[in-house]
Amino acid sequence: MKQSKYHWIRSEEPIQTELINWLKEHGFSEQLAPLLANRKITTAEQLSAYFYPNLEDLYDPFLLFDMDKAVNRLFEAIESGQKIVIYGDYDADGITSTTVMKEAIELVGGDVSYFLPNRFEHGYGPNVKVYEQLIADGAELIVTVDNGVTGHEAIEYAKTQGVDVIVTDHHELPPELPEPYALIHPKHPAGNYPFGDLAGVGVAFKVATALLEEPPVELLDLVAIGTIADLVSLTDENRNLVKHGLQMMKETDRVGLNALMKVANVDKENISAESVGFGIGPRLNAIGRIGDASPGVELMCTFDEEQAEELATFIQKKNEERQAIVATISQEALEMVAELGEQSIYLLAKEGWNEGVLGIVASQIVQKTNRPAIILSLNPESGLAKGSGRSIEQINLYDLLSEIRDELVKFGGHHMAAGMTLEQSKLPEIQAKLNTLIEQQSIDFSVGQPLNVEDHLAIEALDVRLVEAIQTLGPFGTDNPSPVFLFENGRAQMTKAIGADQKHLKFQFQTSDASIDVIAFGYGNQLVEIESASELAIVGDLSINEWNGNKKVQLMMKDYGINEKQVFDYREKLHLLPELLSLPRTFYVLFDGKHLNQFKAIPQEHLLLVGDQTDLSQYAGAAQSVVFLDCPIEEHQLQEIVSELQVERIYLLLYSKEQCYLNGMPSREAFGKLFKLVQTKQEIDVRYKLNELAQYINVEFNTIIFMINVLFELKFVTIENGVMRKVDSTNFTPLNESKVYQTRERKMQTEKFLLYSNIIELEKWLFQ
Prior knowledge:
Layout lengths: L6 E4 L6 H9 L7 H6 L5 H8 L15 H13 L3 E5 L4 H16 L3 E5 L12 H9 L4 E5 L6 H9 L3 E5 L13 E3 L15 H13 L7 H10 L6 H16 L3 H9 L9 H18 L3 H8 L3 H36 L5 E6 L6 H12 L3 E7 L4 E7 L6 H7 L4 E6 L3 E7 L3 H13 L10 E4 L10 H8 L13 E14 L5 E7 L4 E6 L6 H5 L4 E12 L2 E13 L3 E4 L7 H5 L4 E5 L16 E3 L15 E6 L5 H10 L3 E7 L4 H4 L4 H14 L1 E3 H12 L3 H13 L3 E4 L2 E4 L12 H18 L2 H8 L2
Parallel strand pairs: 1-12, 2-3, 2-4, 4-5, 5-6, 7-8, 15-17, 18-22, 19-20, 19-21, 21-22
Antiparallel strand pairs: 8-9, 9-11, 10-11, 13-14, 13-16, 14-15, 16-17, 23-25, 24-25
Helix pairs in contact: 5-8, 5-9, 5-13, 6-7, 8-9, 9-10, 9-12, 11-13, 11-14, 12-14, 13-14, 14-15, 24-25
Organism: Vagococcus zengguangii
Protein name: Single-stranded-DNA-specific exonuclease RecJ
InterPro entries: DDH_dom (IPR001667), DHH_sf (IPR038763), DHHA1_dom (IPR003156), RecJ (IPR004610), RecJ_C (IPR018779), RecJ_OB (IPR041122), SSDNA_exonuclease_RecJ (IPR051673)
C-alpha cells in the first residue's frame, strides 16, 4: 500500500441541462460538462464569457478608487513637463508593471524614467533613502507599480518635499493605509471595483487604459506574463487579459520578448500559460532574486536586436545561477530537516543563504514534508534573520505570524506565503511559539494537500480530439487549474527511467480494457515501487505528444497511490541492499543463520532469524514492511510470516548462496563417483581437498559439501578431525532417505517457485 502524496478530492457537481445544451449549440464536446460544472461555470452568460472573452467586456478602469484623480495628476505632469519616475518591483510582475506604465506614459508624451529597488540593498516597497535620492535627482511625481501600500514613511517624506506619489498596487492592504496623492488598488475599502484579484501589471494596465482612453492591446503580452508569473487568479478579468495576451505573444514584434522566448526554448506558435509560467516568468524573476532587475525592463523595451540578444543571454545565465544556488541551499536545508526530525513547522536559518531564493527553497521543503517552512538568511553584522515562508492549505501563514507579531521586526504576506525579518536571538523562542500555535490546531499532517481530480473519463474514451477540447478550457493557472484526471485499477508496463540523470519515468498504464502512455517527472527513484503495484491509481494532466507528425494522448503524472498490499521484486539484486536498509518501520527476515555475515549491516533490533518454532505474533502490526533476505526451505513460510506480521509491503530479495534449483540435484553417477573415490583413497582430508573434489566430480563447491553431508548422514563415510573415511558396510540406504537430500529437494522446489516465477503470480499467491 502506498498513500498518495496529495489528498484526492473527487468533484461531483450536478450537471444542468442548460450546460449540456449550450455545449451542443456551440460545437463543444459534452465531455467538458463535468469539468465546467466543477468550475461553477454553468449558465449561458458564464459560458460565453469563459469561452469567448472580449476586451470590450473589461471593467471600466474608472471604477477603481482614485483613478480619475490619478489620471488627472498624470496629465497635469505631462502637460507641464514634470519629471515622472516609476518606482517598480524586482519580480516578473514588477518588471512588466514598470514596462506597461512606462510605455503608456510615453505614448501620451510624458517625461518618464523608472527605478527598480534592489532586493538586497533597498528591500521591498518604497524606501525612504531611495525616495530622497530620486527627489534630489529631480523627480516631481512618483508612480509606484506592484508596491506602495506599505510605504507610509517614504510617501510621507515625499509629501514633505512637495512631491506627489500615486500608488498602484495589488498586495494585501495593511490595517492602516498610507495617504498618497492617489491610491489605486482593486480591493480599496472605499472602492467598488468588481474584481479584486488583478496582478500589479493588471492594475498598471488599468491606469494605461484610463490614460489612453482604450485598452492598449500592444501591452497585453506584458500583462499576460506578469499576471501568470504572479500566480493570481486566472478567472474573470484576468482570464480575459491573459487569453488575449497569449495571443498577442504569438504575434508580438517586441524584440526583447522574442529573444527571451528563444533562450527559454518557448514555442512561440504554441505558447500557453504553462510555458510562460515555467519558461519566461522564472527567468524574469531570477534577475531580481540575485541582483538588479533593471535588465528585465531594458529587455522588454529595447528595439535593438543585438542588445535584446545580449540581455536575454544575460538573463538566461542569471537563471542558471539562480538554479544552482537553489539546489545548494535546498540540499543544506533538507539535511537540517533530517536532523531535526518531524516538526509542526520547520524554521531553518543559516548565514550566507541568498535571501532572493528562500521562497523557492521553502516551497521545496513544504513539498517534501507537508509542513509549513520558514527559511531565513542570518546576517551576523545586523543580528537579523530575513527570509520567506510557505505553508499548507490547513495553516494560514499570515494569521499564524500575526499571532507573534510582537516578536517580529516586520512581516507581510497571505495564507500560503510570507516574508519576514526577525532578530536572530529570538529564533528559539519563535520556533517554540509557532510549534505551540500549530499543535493547538490539531492538524493531521498525514493527510496530503487537497487536489481536485476528475474521474469520469475512461482510458478507452480518450483521443486527441477530446484532449484538444479540454485544452480550450485554458489558460490554466490559479483558480482555473488544468483538469487532473484519475485512472484506477491498472498496472505499469514497460517502465523505464529516462532523462540524463534518470530522474524521470516513462511507462504504459494498462487496465483490462486499454492503456495510456505516462510521463512522470521526478519519479525516477520510485521505479520499483510503481512497476511492482498490481492495483495502481494515477492522476495527472492529459496532453498530446506529437512525433514525426503523429499525435498521441499521454498523461503527465502528478501523483499516484496503491490501495493494495505490494510486493517488490529485488530478486537477484543483492547490490541494492543499501536501498532496502533505509526503509522505515521494517523487519528483515532471515531463514538461514549461515547468511548472517552477508547481512551484518542490518540493525539487530530489526532482524528476525526465523526457524521452525519461531513465534512472530508478538511483532504483529509493529512494521509496515518486511524484507525477505534469503530463500526459505518451504515456500509456505513466506505466506505465514506475511499473515502474522500484518504488513502492507513485501520486499523479496531471496538471496540463495547455494542456488539449489539452478545447480540441480547431483546424479546417482556423481554420488557413485565420489563414493568410489573415497573407497579408492581410503581417506580424504576434506579441509583442504574440497575444491579438488568439486573439480573431479564436476560440480559446484557448495554441491560437493552437500554430497559429503548426504554420505555422512547415511553412514557411507565418517568424518573425524576433517578427515573423511569410508565405512565398511553392506547395508546401503537409498540416497532419497537422507534428510539432507530431502531438504535440498524441497529447497529446489521452493527456489524454482520463489526465484523464477513471474512477480504477478507470486503476488497473487502471497495474498491468497
